[in-house]
Amino acid sequence: MNIALYTDGSCPRNWDPGPNNPAGWAFVVVNRNDIFKHQEHGQTERLSCSGRVITKDPQRGWIGARTGTNQTAELCGVYWALRYVQWNRAEGVPLDSVALFTDSKYAKFMVTREWKWDDNCKMENKELVLACRKLQDDVDVRIRWLPGHRGFHWNEKADELAYEAAKLGKYVGTNEWRKML
Asked: Among residues 120, 135, 17, which one has the least CA distance to residue 84?
């Protein structure tokens, strides 16, 4: 089975970062034949999930974000999409090829190690980036950048879900998804 994941993050009050600033993440999973290029048609939605960025350790669902920002939201979307792939493979679901599309160059480049940080500098979101990298190493998913807010259906759906999660502050998804937390 070939799938594509579309991720997004949202932080309506991005100018006011902090542990109580609401931010949301989302991912949409679609079945598809050709995972190597983005396509609008010939895909069916399999699952969509979203949630609030958790900024307090050891609260359930915390994965390293210390503040609610657009960057932490984008990284959380990538993290939970990769976690979804890992969980499915552990359950024996035959996922042959998987592509993850994000509209965040920051998230793509940090997770794929195309951007590096200086060891002498304090790195924002370091725990979250390292958690994403570990999952990426484990699941071997192709991560691709897709321009945001250009009318790409699945990216727009992920964007809407992430925004709703930031505003509503709750998880949205199937019972299957809740087992992953």
From this structure: 135
Taking alpha carbons only, the member of 51, 23, 45 closest to residue 32 is: 45
Residues facing residue 169 across a β-bridge: none
The tokens for 90 are 């552990």
Q: What is the pLDDT of residues 93-133, one digit of tens each?
A: 888 889 999 999 999 999 999 987 766 667 778 899 999 99
Range of the domain at 165: 2-178
Residue with tokens 């989302």: 26
Number of domains in the chain: 1
CATH number of the domain at 88, please.
Answer: 3.30.420.10
What secondary structure does DSSP assign to 116-137, as a single string? ---TTSPPTTHHHHHHHHHHHH
pLDDT digits over 70-84, tens only?
A: 999 999 999 999 999
Bridge pairing between strands 24-31 and 44-52 = antiparallel
Instruction: Read off the pLDDT band of 20 (50, 70, 90).
Output: confident
SS3 103: coil
